[in-house]
């Protein structure tokens, strides 16, 4: 199973060349991607990242989007992608940190702002020995990142693993088999009545 984790996360205000504030922020991230498979390589489509923050516990506000170009990852390999992302206008870190109520993933109150990172891509697996490739599988992953309200840095020094799921689509033969099974279940009583009627017609008077 592919493993995604946020190794580093940092947000700061953005300024123009003249020092003027664009009322935007810059997010720095480092994403680790691990293929622990001993016999399968992975082909990734473009990896789309969405960065958001919780204005309240129930209000998730999108901040920025970022696309990582698709690539191939070998057997039992680890890679990382890191970059800076500029948020949309009106999303200055100073305003976010000042206005957002204190939220925490822990029961105790802390001076953290909670961000969320969502990942969406599609992958294909390739068997190393035979060269057999799997079908294209849609993948989604997500995690929440606590950021210190004063420094803008990820509060924990530990990597944050993304929860993720792979959508498994039913194959054509399986769908066909299910349709046949449903038809057989529906038609069985009708066939029984027809056979019973035919037997009665054949019974001597």
Automatic annotation (TrEMBL):
Keywords: Membrane, Transmembrane, Transmembrane helix. GO terms for cellular component: plasma membrane; plasmodesma. InterPro entries: NDR1-like. GO terms for biological process: defense response to other organism. The chain crosses the membrane at residues 170-194. The keyword Membrane applies. It is found in: Membrane. The keyword Transmembrane helix applies. PANTHER family: LATE EMBRYOGENESIS ABUNDANT (LEA) HYDROXYPROLINE-RICH GLYCOPROTEIN FAMILY-RELATED (PTHR31415:SF52), OS05G0367900 PROTEIN (PTHR31415). This is Late embryogenesis abundant protein LEA-2 subgroup domain-containing protein. It comes from Daucus carota subsp. sativus (Carrot). The lineage of its organism: Eukaryota, Viridiplantae, Streptophyta, Embryophyta, Tracheophyta.
């Amino acid at each position: 199973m592919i493993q995604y984790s946020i190794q580093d996360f940092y947000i700061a205000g953005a300024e123009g060349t003249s020092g003027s504030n664009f009322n935007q922020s810059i997010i720095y991230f480092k994403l680790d991607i691990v293929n622990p498979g001993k016999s399968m390589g992975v082909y990734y489509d473009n990896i789309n990242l969405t960065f958001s923050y919780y204005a309240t516990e129930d209000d998730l506000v999108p901040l920025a989007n970022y696309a990582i170009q698709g690539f191939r990852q070998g057997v039992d390999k680890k890679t990382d992608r890191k970059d800076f992302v500029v948020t949309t206008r009106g999303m200055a870190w100073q305003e976010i940190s000042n206005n957002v109520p204190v939220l925490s993933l822990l029961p105790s109150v802390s001076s953290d702002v909670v961000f969320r990172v969502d990942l969406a891509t599609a992958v294909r697996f390739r068997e190393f020995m035979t060269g057999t490739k799997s079908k294209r599988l849609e993948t989604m992953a997500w995690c929440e990142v606590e950021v210190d309200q004063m420094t803008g840095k990820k509060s924990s020094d530990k990597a944050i693993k993304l929860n993720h799921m792979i959508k498994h689509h039913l194959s054509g033969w399986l769908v066909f088999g299910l349709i046949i099974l449903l038809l057989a279940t529906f038609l069985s009583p009708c066939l029984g009545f027809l056979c019973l009627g035919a037997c009665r017609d054949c019974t001597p008077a």
